[in-house]
UniProtKB/TrEMBL annotation:
Highest rank taxon of the organism: Eukaryota
Name used for this protein in its record: Uncharacterized protein
Source organism of the structure: Rotaria magnacalcarata
Amino acid sequence: MDEQVDKSIDTLNEQQQFLFEASIKLVRFLRINPRKQTDPFFSGLARMIDEEQYICRSYDLVNFNQQLIRKLKQLQREYEQQFIRTVQNEENQILPHVYKLITSVNEILMIKTQIDAIKKYQEGILKLHENKIEQNEAYV
């Protein structure tokens, strides 16, 4: 049982690292500046850091939050450093590489499940609108 848990944790860590690197490559492909609000990953990190710092200033239970702030800031630094390395590798800008990257991201089971759920939701909304249009046409 412990081996299975360890394997699952290793798989999740590998996927997390892959998604981290893939996000940076896609941001670079879209020519988004990581220090501006246009980069959702960077701005999300900055927002989380601000929120945790607010919690630390507002409440006495800060030990865990301080650790979280350190981890988030470390992730932010790693993101910036990886982005710089990615900028230096222009191969990431070639469309077939980007397509392969997107395909690889979509193959991760957790992401595939979320994408499938979104598609089903969109299909349901589309069906609902089609039914409304049919009903409106029937009354005209």
